[in-house]
């Protein structure tokens, strides 16, 4: 771009303007160029750099006045080139005040000392400082997010004028920045300026009595929650874009969804994408607040999130949920609505959730199970609710006391039983004796109230029953098989063949254990012997009997004309085997067989596993053909 116009340039055109001017032709002019373009002083010729000539209009202009003068004069509107008065006008203009000021402006401009350049340089320096501060803030936010820490502090502890008060908890975000500022002069200067300006604004409001919230509009500290929220949202968008780009590179993916309540009692739906490139990958796509638990609404939320993330819904080949009614309902469940959008997708009920439901049902299958876990949970609450009782425990044992058993997580029951009774057939690390001793000391201590002492006695008597020991060994044996399976089902990047085999192996192990009550009795006797020996060594005077509690046998009265008669089981061992042991094992085996067998796709895929080739030979040709046909149909849908 070349400026040739003989008009006043704007600020952004000055550089090009001075490249084009002055224009001082020597040919085809009606004046003497040497007299016009040069002035004589002390017998020396000095070129008039300010003088420029427009040949087409035959007018003279002052380059400096055109660029910088605010007033109009003869040389800004064009001076005639008539030689009669030209040289006089040139001398007069050189001596004018306006021209002198324009020369000064040009000199400042040429040295970049003018207001515009000085202002621009200051702004650029300020920008660099702000960007450097922002870099530190972004890195701080990334670190806090990586560590999973909270950002915010107390409600009134985030204002900039409070940052110099070390007694206030400003939250992790501001506290980390304050810590860094102690070793970073740039950040320290920024925070000090923010505190100074914010304090001035805050004190003025106090004096005038104004009530205002937030920062003043002209004060940008980059330390507010708003800035942190913007940065977090920007990071989230970049992460989602990166995840979406990786997913779009593969042919298909599956989704996993689950909802949970946050601290504000808002239901949040988590959407996880599972896809395979060189490895099996699981990525959290986002949390979406949902105001309804209906399957249609959840399907709509997921579809909108996938669309917003730039993912093709038609590439979704499967969905996995926790198996709740609103998820897997046949007509109005989430999967039913998703099938309307993507008919080819296959729903898989999360195996970890299936096992969790199975074990939760098993621990509630009979009255003895409910009483057993209720006893353990009650003891945990009883000791933990008083520091005096906890002091008794701490003087008895060096280990932590048992935790309260959760209702929805069966592994909490596994952890509690294992902590109290040790492992199956090995009570070496059990806290059973320590707990009984603590409860017995509470019962025998007169400082406790009668109600507390009574409860402690009831708990001791319940723990010392032979039925309690047997039930603990039953569940220890079950947990020894189901816990490794549960942990593997929650492993990142698990092998589907291995998971399928582990389910089958666990079912086979439970089948083998289901009618071996003698092994339970042997483990119970081992535990009882160890506990009684430990009681004697500690001189507690307590003992666990190796026999069942005798109960009165209830007989039905035979009415006149009745031929059959009631023949109840008199042997207590057989009665416990039938009513408790068999019931527990029948429930867990039936539940595992029924719930896991619903996924026929895994049995179809399993025939491709080389380790199953031998067992596949035992199948009929028709069964093998059916499985291959089913698997082929699924693969055709995936690669359609």
Key features?
640 residues, alpha+beta, five-stranded mixed beta sheet, three-stranded antiparallel beta sheet, 26 helices, 56% helix, elongated
Description:
The protein has 640 residues and is of the alpha+beta class. The chain has helices at residues 14-20, 33-37, 63-68, 74-77, 83-94, 97-110, 115-147, 172-181, 185-208, 225-248, 295-308, 325-328, 334-341, 351-362, 367-384, 387-396, 410-421, 432-444, 450-463, 466-489, 496-513, 517-537, 572-596, 600-606, 613-616, 621-638; strands spanning 38-41, 44-47, 51-54, 59-62, 79-80, 253-261, 267-276, 280-289, 316-321, 346-349. It has a five-stranded mixed sheet. Helix 14 (351-362) runs antiparallel to helix 23, helix 20 (466-489) packs across helix 22 (517-537) and helix 21 (496-513) runs antiparallel to helix 23. The longest helix is centred in the first third of the chain and has 33 residues, at 115-147. The chain is elongated.
Protein topology:
Layout: H1 14-20, H2 33-37, E1 38-41, E2 44-47, E3 51-54, E4 59-62, H3 63-68, H4 74-77, E5 79-80, H5 83-94, H6 97-110, H7 115-147, H8 172-181, H9 185-208, H10 225-248, E6 253-261, E7 267-276, E8 280-289, H11 295-308, E9 316-321, H12 325-328, H13 334-341, E10 346-349, H14 351-362, H15 367-384, H16 387-396, H17 410-421, H18 432-444, H19 450-463, H20 466-489, H21 496-513, H22 517-537, H23 572-596, H24 600-606, H25 613-616, H26 621-638
Parallel strand pairs: 6-9, 9-10
Antiparallel strand pairs: 1-2, 3-4, 4-5, 6-7, 7-8
């Amino acid at each position: 771009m070349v400026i040739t116009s003989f008009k006043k340039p704007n600020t952004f055109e000055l550089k090009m303007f001075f490249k084009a001017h002055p224009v001082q032709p020597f040919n085809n002019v009606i004046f003497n160029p040497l007299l016009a373009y040069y002035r004589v002083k002390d017998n020396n010729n000095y070129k008039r750099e300010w003088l420029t000539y427009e040949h087409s209009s035959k007018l003279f202009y002052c380059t400096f006045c055109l660029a910088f003068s605010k007033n109009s004069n003869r040389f800004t509107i064009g001076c005639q080139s008539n030689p009669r008065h030209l040289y006089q006008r040139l001398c007069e203009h050189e001596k004018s005040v306006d021209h002198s000021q324009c020369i000064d402006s040009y000199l400042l401009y040429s040295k970049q000392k003018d207001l515009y350049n000085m202002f621009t340089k200051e702004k650029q320096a300020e920008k660099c400082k702000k960007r450097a501060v922002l870099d530190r803030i972004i890195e701080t936010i990334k670190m806090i997010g990586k560590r999973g820490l909270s950002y915010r502090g107390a409600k009134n502890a985030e204002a900039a004028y409070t940052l110099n008060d070390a007694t206030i908890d400003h939250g992790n975000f501001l506290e980390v920045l304050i810590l860094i500022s102690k070793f970073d002069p740039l950040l320290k200067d920024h925070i000090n300026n923010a505190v100074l300006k914010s304090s001035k604004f805050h004190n003025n409001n106090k004096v005038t009595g104004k009530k205002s919230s937030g920062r003043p509009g002209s004060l940008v500290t980059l330390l507010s929650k708003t800035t942190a929220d913007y940065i977090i949202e920007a990071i989230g968008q970049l992460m989602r874009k990166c995840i979406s780009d990786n997913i779009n590179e593969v042919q298909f993916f599956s989704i996993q969804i689950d909802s949970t309540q946050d601290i504000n009692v808002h239901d949040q739906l988590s959407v996880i994408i599972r896809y395979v490139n060189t490895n099996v990958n699981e990525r959290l796509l986002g949390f979406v607040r949902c105001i309804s638990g209906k399957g249609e609404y959840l399907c709509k939320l997921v579809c909108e999130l996938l669309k917003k993330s730039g993912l093709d819904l038609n590439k979704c080949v499967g969905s996995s949920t926790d198996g709740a009614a609103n998820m897997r309902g046949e007509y109005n469940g989430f999967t039913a609505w998703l099938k309307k959008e993507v008919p080819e997708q296959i729903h898989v009920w999360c195996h970890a959730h299936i096992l969790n439901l199975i074990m939760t049902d098993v621990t509630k299958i009979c009255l003895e199970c409910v009483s057993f876990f209720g006893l353990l949970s009650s003891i945990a609450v009883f000791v933990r609710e008083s520091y005096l009782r906890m002091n008794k425990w701490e003087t008895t044992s060096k280990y932590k006391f048992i935790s309260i058993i959760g209702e929805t997580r069966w592994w909490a029951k596994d952890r509690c039983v294992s902590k109290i009774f040790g492992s199956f057939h090995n009570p070496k690390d059990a806290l059973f004796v320590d707990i009984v001793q603590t409860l017995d000391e509470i019962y025998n201590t007169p400082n406790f109230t009668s109600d507390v002492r009574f409860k402690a006695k009831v708990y001791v008597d319940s723990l010392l029953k032979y039925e309690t020991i047997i039930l603990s060994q039953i569940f220890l044996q079950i947990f020894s098989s189901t816990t490794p399976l549960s942990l593997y089902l929650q492993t990142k990047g698990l092998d589907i063949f291995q998971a399928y085999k582990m389910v089958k192996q666990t079912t086979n192990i439970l089948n083998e254990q289901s009618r071996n009550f003698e092994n339970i009795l042997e483990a119970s006797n081992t535990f009882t012997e160890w506990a009684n020996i430990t009681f004697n060594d500690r001189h507690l005077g307590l003992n666990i009997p190796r026999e069942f509690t005798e109960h009165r046998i209830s007989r039905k009265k035979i009415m006149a004309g009745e031929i059959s008669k009631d023949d109840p089981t008199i042997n207590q061992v057989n009665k416990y085997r039938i009513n408790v042991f068999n019931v527990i094992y029948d429930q867990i085996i039936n539940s595992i067989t029924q719930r896991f067998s619903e996924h026929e796709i895994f049995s179809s895929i399993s025939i491709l596993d080389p380790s199953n080739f031998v067992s596949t030979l035992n199948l009929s040709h028709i069964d093998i053909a059916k499985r291959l046909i089913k698997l082929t149909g699924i693969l055709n849908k995936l690669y359609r």
